[in-house]
Amino acid sequence: MLDSSIPQAPIQVHVFVSGRVQGVGYRMATRDVAQALGLNGWVRNLTDGRVEAVFEGSKEAVEKMVQWCHQGTRAAVVEDVAVEYKEPEGISEFSIRR
């Protein structure tokens, strides 16, 4: 049984979201949700139409963020979310990259 008083080691995921995810407020909403969950990382548009993001934080918060990515904003049409687990880098904020 896990003791909730023991701090959990942060995890990192690197996601690639495909579908209609550009021009629908996806990056801004991703930033807002990530900050509300206490996550650090970044999000950016890719030239192939996908959105790429990195999320670092508690396992629970990161998993909630990945679930959110599957739906995105109201105007988004998410077709796929590819997730890669990586070693945390110690990112200290959440930003939108250009």
Instruction: Note the run of SSEs as H and E.
Output: EHEEHEE
Strand content: 35-45%
Mean of pLDDT:
94
Shape: globular
Low-confidence segments, given as residue ranges, are none
Structure explained in plain terms:
The chain is globular and about 40 Å long. The chain has a five-stranded mixed sheet with strand order 4-1-3-2-5, covered by helices on one side. The longest helix has 11 residues, at 26-36. The protein has two helices and five strands. The chain has 98 residues and is of the alpha+beta class. The chain has a domain at 21-88: Alpha-Beta Plaits (2-Layer Sandwich).
Topology:
Layout: E1 11-20, H1 26-36, E2 40-45, E3 51-57, H2 59-69, E4 77-86, E5 94-96
Parallel strand pairs: 2-5
Antiparallel strand pairs: 1-3, 1-4, 2-3
Feature tags:
98 residues; alpha+beta; Alpha-Beta Plaits; five-stranded mixed sheet; 2 helices; 5 strands; globular
In short:
By secondary structure, this protein is α+β, with helices and mostly antiparallel strands. Helix content is 22%, strand content 37%. The termini are far apart.
